[in-house]
Design a protein that fits this description.
By secondary structure, the chain is α+β, with helices and mostly antiparallel strands. The protein is built from 2 helices and 8 strands. Strands 1, 2, 5, 6, 7 and 8 form a 6-stranded mixed beta sheet that branches. A two-stranded antiparallel ribbon has the order 3-4. A hairpin with a 4-residue loop joins strand 6 (109-120) and strand 7 (125-128). The longest helix is centred in the N-terminal third of the chain and has 23 residues, at 3-25.
Length: 178
């Protein structure tokens, strides 16, 4: 092959390689091409759904109307959110002393409740909504069944996650929080 032919081949390969990079970076949709919406529902047991947001006047109204539109049972009474009949769940026992080898007897209890989060685009992180009666100004939301202090792993930019707690990848976890 001549020097000119080698240059043409290298140039063609470079053009092909660099033209594929922008195409792979431009998509904000999940890998499978689907886009369900901007409300994450995290059931606290490894199951999550993304549904469409049905905007309301307040954050609470928006959550309730979005759940209803998605066919998910939801009630909001003041600041207490109930989804599919579940308001809270406590695991563990308030037993004194306890045992580290026998489940539920460490004397520690953990309560999970529904938490509402707003996506902070500037900081690229979830922030817990402190007031469900505050005006909803748009943007992604998350509703998650967690203990206090936990935030969702999935984000509007990364809509799938995989976390394992208490069990190996080949076994089902004996603990089902929801």
């Amino acid at each position: 092959m001549t020097r000119k032919g080698t240059f043409v081949c290298l140039f063609a390969v470079a053009v092909l390689l660099f033209s594929a990079v922008p195409a792979s970076l431009s998509s904000g949709a999940p890998e499978d091409g689907t886009y369900a919406g901007d409300l994450l529902i995290d059931y606290g047991n490894g199951n999550t759904d993304w549904v469409a947001v049905s905007a309301g006047a307040t954050v609470g109204d928006t959550v309730a109307s979005s759940f209803t539109a998605a066919g998910v049972e939801c009630t909001l009474s003041g600041t207490v959110l109930s989804v599919a009949g579940k308001t809270s769940s406590t695991v563990g026992a308030a037993d004194s002393g306890g045992s580290l080898s026998s489940k539920g007897t460490t004397g520690v209890t953990v309560t999970s409740t529904w938490h509402v989060f707003l996506w902070d685009r500037a900081a690229s992180k979830w922030s817990e909504a402190s007031d469900l009666s505050a005006s909803y100004s748009g943007g992604p939301l998350a509703v998650a069944f967690y203990p206090d202090g936990i935030v969702p792993v999935e984000t509007p930019d990364h809509r799938a996650s995989w976390t394992m707690v208490e069990a190996g990848a080949e076994k089902a976890s004996p603990k089902n929080n929801f």
